[in-house]
Amino acid sequence: MKCGRGIRRGQAGVTLVELMVAMAIGLIVVAGLAMMFANSSQAGRELDNTSRQIENGRYAVDLLSQEMAAAGFYGDVPYAGGVYTQPDPCATAIDQLGWDDASKKRPDPIEGKTASEMAGLGCSGNPSASSPAVVLRRLDTNTTPQASVVDSAAIAYVQTSQCNNDLASTAFVASTQKSAFMLRNLTCTGPGEVRRYLSRIYYVASCNECSGAGVDTLPTLKRAEVSGNKVTVTPLAVGIEHIALEYGFDTNNDGSPDVYRTGLSGVAGAADNAWSNVVTARVYVLARTVDEVPAHTDTKRYVMGLQGTLGPYNDKYKRKVFVATAKLQNVAGPREN
Fold it and tell me: Residue 191 has what DSSP assignment?
């Protein structure tokens, strides 16, 4: 058998030119993949940024409208003959909360506060210099067993009487002491309902973390709530830059709004100069993205109802306005009847 001299030998390597061409193609492919990954990551971050903005804006407007709708819920406290008061929103002592059974006084369910008024309240930390706020007051929708009232906690409770044999002059009792709650239920065989009093200020703060090492400048919707002998501030939704409120005043006592205003009219004795006549409220929430969007410039104007427009901001944040209207059923309902 002859040796196969005609058989080709296997290739032993590549030339330098072939190697350089292969490297160049590989680098192009890697660069393309890196660019695609970077674009995908940027798009993902922007989508997450926008999603959080929408989620926070919707949460804020829903929360405020629901809280406004519940304002003025005073359980079985008699509506007829009631006298409304405007206590200091930062007050914590029971005799300063606006309750008095002898004169049938109870605090206003809703009360608007301007930005300048908020600056003068010591219990709300770092309020926005431009955004108004709202104070909402009511009783807890859940009753508290009389035995669960803790005197040392200094928490205000209101008890109402449903028993015909209780003194007619004492329709309710507001106190922090368990021993004060002597009114009885409908069958006159046990204690009447006891409910915790809730007083809350909803406002925009200029920061989310306002102290310590993590101080920021992220606008945040916050709640300052009377809790025992102090006021506790809780962040609720980040990126809420501004809220605007319109109040519907019932001027003829039929339970329907007759005029909308951003605050009291200032006319002494007028129906639209009393917070107790507010039967509806409309809230505008301006929410912005938490992080800047590099390719975006905000040149829009945002309509905030009777308060006018905001912007353009000419910065890198995206913004959106959310609107909701709430009926204060606990105020409007008795008037309709």
Answer: B
Identity of the residue numbered 48? D
- Categorize the per-residue pLDDT at 171 as very low, low, confident or very high, splitting at 50, 70 and 90: confident
Gap between the Cα atoms of 105 and 23, Å rounded: 85
Quickly tell me which residue has 């890198």 as its tokens. 316
Count CB neighbours of 19 within 10 A. Answer: 11
**3-state SS class at 265:** coil
User: Among candidates 75, 97, 72, 84, which has minimal Cα distance to 171?
Assistant: 75
The answer to whether the beta carbons of residues 323 and 283 sit under 8 Å apart is yes
Mean pLDDT taken over the chain? 90
Helix, strand, coil percentages in the chain from 3-state DSSP, rounded to 5: 25, 30, 45
Condensed to tens digits (0 to 9), the pLDDT of residues 235-248 reads 999 999 999 999 99
Of the listed ranges 12-16, 188-192, 305-309, the least confidently predicted one is 12-16
Q: What's the alpha-carbon Rg for the chain, to the nearest Å?
A: 31
> 115 and 310 in contact (C-beta within 8 Å)?
no
pLDDT value for 193: 87
pTM given for the model? 0.86
Find the largest Cα–Cα distance for the chain. 130
Is cis: bond before 145, omega within 30 of 0?
no
**According to the model, what pLDDT value does residue 3 have?**
52
- In sequence order, which ranges of the chain are alpha helices (DSSP H)? 16-70, 115-119, 329-336
Instruction: Locate the DSSP E strands across the chain.
Output: 83-85, 105-107, 110-113, 133-143, 157-160, 172-175, 194-205, 220-227, 230-238, 240-249, 259-261, 278-288, 302-303, 309-310, 319-327
From CA 261, how far away is CA 302, in angstroms rounded?
19
DSSP 252: S
pLDDT at 9: 56
